[in-house]
Specification:
By secondary structure, the chain is mostly helical. 49% of the residues lie in helices and 4% in strands.
Amino acid sequence: MQPALFDTKNGEAHETLSFIKLNGKQQRVSPVFFTYWKFAAERHAVFTRRLQGVSPSTTDPIIQHFKFTNAFRVLDRTSQYLVRNVIQKGDQSVNELFFRILLFKLFNKIDTWELLLQHLGEVRLDSFRFERFDRVFTDALSKGKRIYSAAYIMPSGGPNGESRKHRAHLRLLEQMLENDVPYKLAGLKTMREGFSLLRSFPMIGDFLAYQFITDINYSSITNFSEMEFVVAGPGALDGLKKCFPDMIPGEAASLIQFVCEEQERFQADYGIEPVQIFGRPLQLIDCQNLFCETDKYARVAHPQIKGYSGRTRIKQAYRTAGSLPEPVFPDKWKVNI
């Protein structure tokens, strides 16, 4: 399969960007950084074309064949469901919002949320009983159903924890509520503080704490800037390494921040129209995700350029999901569609 977003002729034309300077250090720039921006633009264009009913949504053979997340995290199917059906529906009090968001994100699977609705009618903190929820999940597992998303691996409770992973996560949610985490979060000023609070609980590492605080921040519980703080996941580290061959993991957050803050300049340098969603530019969480997706794309487009993990295949194939509903956004963003 030949890459469509990067070709030798265009790549050579843009190789004037050989280095970037950050914190006094020169970082070499590989051709994958051009692909990063071309991929961001094309992947967002795919979303826009699908929303408008344009077919085919892309002629890029790699994007046609393999599954990639959207350029903007909030536009991914699970995030859209979270905003529309979990956050914006139901009691808007701090405790109830936190309960719904964390319960949804611990499993991160739309089918699991709808399973709860099917059995319980409404998911509410004031009717939460460990045994009721455990019964629903245990019954589903006994019938061979999957209750966790494959998007990322949720840790178990360990050898001294509950006998089943879902029970450990229900206990974790109980523990966070008993420790008044919702109201503590509501009183914090920065995303980094919110991240640190979540990170202090068992089974929540850096990656999950960052994902969870981002999702909580889609609600009215907090009002953090998405440009304040970023954590690079394993896939993003691979993508960064492919773009900047001399980087070390400790430089990841600074590189993402720099790339995101300078996005208009980089896009202009590469002759790419600004990648925006109704006037809102890419945020740190989006740029972090795009490095992860670029890592995957580059396995086919630039197989000779290696990251940290050495992965060479893209596992998930693209499947047509039909037409897209009109997107929804956190109310605080004041996005005009």
